[in-house]
Amino acid sequence: MYSGWNLVLIITVLCGQSIGFFWPFTAFAATNAVDSGPDADASRRVAIIGAGAGGSSAAYYLQQFAEQSGVELNITVFEKSSYVGGRSTTVNAYDDPLEPVELGASIFVDVNTILKNSSEKFGLKAKRSETESEEVLGIWNGESFVYTQKDSGWQWWDIAKLIWKYGLAPIRTQRLMKSTVGKFQKLYEAPFFPFRSLSDRALDLGLTAVTSMTGEQYLAQNSIGAPFSTEIIQASTRVNYGQNLGVIHGLETMVCMAIEGAMQIDGGNWQIFYGMLNASLSKVLLNSTVRAITKRNGKYNIQTASQDYTGKTSRKEESFDTVILAAPFQYAEIDFEEGLLKHTPDNIPYVTLHVTLFTSPRKLDPTFFNLAPDVEVPTSVLTTLAPDDVPLTPEEGVGKPGFFSISTLRPILNPNTLRKEYLYKVFLPKALTSDFMGGILGIPVPTNLSKISADSGDAISWYYPHVWKSYPYEFPRVTFEDSELAQGFYYTSGMESFISTMETNALMGMNVARLIVDDYLRVIEDDIAKSEKTSQVVLSGEAIQELR
Predict the structure, then answer these.
(1) Where's the Prenylcysteine lyase domain (predicted)?
(2) How many angstroms separate the CA atoms of 524 and 161, rounded?
(3) CB 286 within 8 Å of CB 38
(4) What are the C-alpha distances in Å from 41 to residues 45, 243, 472?
(5) From the CB of residue 90, how many other CB atoms can be counted at a distance below 10 Å?
(6) Are 177 and 5 in contact (CB under 8 A)?
(7) Residue whose C-alpha is closest to residue 440's, from 418, 467, 422, 417
(8) How far is 524 from 519, CA to CA, in rounded Å?
(9) Distance between CA atoms of 120 and 490, rounded to whole angstroms?
């Protein structure tokens, strides 16, 4: 979760957002990360499906809580991809490992205690900015820039300018954000942690009143309205979640404005989750897809299909005492035995987000943004809607701007031509076209983008598109999926419709880990109590025999 409040950090999510970057893990996790766990015959076996933030955190905290409680666990993590980190992933510009760039979940903040503490424990180096030092932030509504600001990184913003233009709305927003996010942070503490029902906890903390209405309604209820809400806050909800204030619920709106102290791990945030898995002593199986789950004699039987480095597929079935599904249910594509789950999570619509990275020697063209030819375009462009721009559906929410954000991440040296270029990141609701790219650069771009190369001499020298099911449409709601779908079968992605970030998914991983260990301890206590009761009965019987 992002925390604090800083306008310029709206751009943080532009330069890095709630999705990830690709680093090609191969056999490391499967061979080196974790075969040193407890003997499966002497411990309870736990299967975790998914090695993203939720799954990695669940493995990490399972090991910690089990060790503290004297419970022996054997943990296996199944990941269908070739890398860990889920939507936190990186790619290398020009395929150069010295030029990694986040493709997905890119930032976290000081109050994100799970991510921050873990990164420090694993000795990972955090950096405070991915963008140019001389950055200019602009918010564009498809017709004109409604706000611009010079910025020197993620840690500074011009509050005087905001108050001069928008009055007390920025101060009211800051206070509202702190109050709302403060309630959420109680989920980390007893008596609210751990929780089996997120719905009940949200109600207990007074947060269903916030999730039950749109961001627009929640802001208006607290005397925060246009133009600050529609220009500044909506630019943040769009770059963070691809959604406008009339769609996204009030809690996620406040999370978008809680972005102070943003940072990212040098080389990629995926390293946090890699570190969690390594520290958990789990057996991590990459390129391993869970196909089906059945239940026999109280055990969950998991059928998997795995590929080795040659592409050869092998199938296997293993039994586990407990299962954690750490991925959205609707995208897991698992065949569940009928009646296995007490409750099946609802299908919820996810945003389809096209993230495109590219490099070019050209800066953004002012004429595309209706500026004079000699005017400098902001290096980072967020978008909002013009007053007369009213999308008919959430899927059409991008409106006249046609994109959610364009960010100039940093200057970069083309390794083939040795010329200075710029690394860009664009968020759109559909695939980026050569016409659009040519428009923002002010020069024709080859129609066949797949043939672009670093030495082609074209306007684009490197190009990397990716499509994410990045996060749910955060429609107002008051109920959320529970942490346990059946006895011994736990679920982390119910958190996504409440708050969708790396930190909150990691929190849900920690939550189910605590529930599992507590449940095991309860079983152990019950077994001990039964054993003592049986012993007493035996002793009583012996005493009766002696009396006879």
Answers:
(1) 150-520
(2) 61
(3) no
(4) 9, 49, 40
(5) 25
(6) yes
(7) 422
(8) 9
(9) 28
Question: What was the pLDDT predicted at 6?
Answer: 36
Nearest to 264 by CA among 545, 36, 13, 440: 13
Instruction: Locate 268 and state its tokens.
Output: 């990629």
Residues, the chain:
548
- Candidates 2, 14, 13; CA nearest to 379 is 14
pTM over 0.85: yes
What is the per-residue pLDDT for 111? 79
Residue-wise pLDDT tens digits, 286-340: 999 999 999 999 999 999 999 887 878 899 999 999 999 999 999 999 999 999 9
CB proximity list for 239: less than 8 A, separation 6 or greater: 10, 11, 13, 14, 17, 382, 383, 404, 405, 427
| Pairing assessment for the beta strands 44-49 and 322-325 based on DSSP bridges | parallel
Query: Which two tokens mark 238?
Result: 């769009």
Dist. CA 478–CA 111, nearest whole Å? 25
Residue type, 95: D
Give Cβ neighbours of residue 20 (< 8 Å, ≥ 6 apart).
85, 86, 87, 88, 89, 90, 102, 103, 104, 105, 106, 269, 270
Count of CB atoms situated within 10 Å of the CB of 174: 17
Q: Which two tokens stand for residue 264?
A: 């990212």
Dist. CA 252–CA 234, nearest whole Å? 12
- Identify whether the C-beta of residue 273 lies closer than 8 Å to the C-beta of residue 29: no
Q: Buried b vs exposed e over 449-474: b needs ≥16 C-beta within 10 Å?
A: beebebeeebbbbbbbbbebebbbbb
pLDDT less than 50: residues of the chain: 1-40, 152-156
Phi/psi for 348 (5° steps) reads -125, 145
| Calpha distance 88→104 (Å, rounded) | 5
CA distance 366 to 176: 37
Residue 492, pLDDT score: 98
Q: Any idea what the Cα angle at residue 268 is, between residues 122 and 306, rounded to 5°?
A: 90
Q: What pLDDT is recorded for position 541? A: 56
Longest dimension (CA), the chain: 110
Tell me how far apart the alpha carbons of residues 227 and 234 are, in angstroms, rounded to a whole number. Answer: 10
pLDDT of residue 81: 95
Closest by alpha carbon to 80, among 383, 332, 364?
Answer: 332
- Which uninterrupted H or E stretch holds 169? helix 169-185
Indicate the SS3 state at residue 1.
coil
Return the pLDDT at 537: 55
The residue with tokens 């690394």 is: 423
- The β-bridge partners of 148 are 138
